[in-house]
């Protein structure tokens, strides 16, 4: 039988049976602890292991998945939290202002960006980049390139809301100078453009 004799085969089979017996038949090691560990069922850990960690030798913890440190006190996140985020529990990061997502990998603007604005990092700070017709920290203010005169307010891109007595795209037409009353109908004054 070559270099493999009858005695070697019996030893090999006996070793496999013993190994199978140890793995399946009731090792003293807790579930999930490999047999290569030196496990002492009477071991004491002070301070105790946290987060379901197992004391395998005196003052030596075997940490459950997602935790690390001498007493399994610290959560670990994989992938690691980005942009200065702190791992709270496995897979959950606390993100600093301006960042979000499971691992703090997304730039976020507090309150979001309105009117089609996009949140992006500018010199490490989250900022809304607004479309050309909007401005403000959240793109909440409309722009009226023509300007709104005489106390008018820009309410939408290019649209002014004019105060009483003023009309026109920029609130530039004085109603009292350019219109004359025709008659009062049901509480509304109807006006006609007076000849210039």
Automatic annotation (TrEMBL):
Signal peptide stretch: 1-25
Domain EGF-like: 41-73, 105-140
Cellular compartments per GO CC: cell surface; extracellular region
Keywords: Disulfide bond, EGF-like domain, Signal
Keyword Signal: yes
Protein name per UniProt: EGF-like domain-containing protein
Keyword Signal set for record: yes
GO biological process: anterior/posterior pattern specification; blood vessel development; determination of left/right symmetry; heart development; nodal signaling pathway
Disulfide feature: 45-55, 63-72, 109-119, 130-139
InterPro entries from the UniProt entry: Dev_Signal_Modulators (IPR050969), EGF (IPR000742), Growth_fac_rcpt_cys_sf (IPR009030)
GO molecular function: activin receptor binding; nodal binding
UniProt organism field: Amphiprion ocellaris (Clown anemonefish)
Lineage per the UniProt record: Eukaryota, Metazoa, Chordata, Craniata, Vertebrata
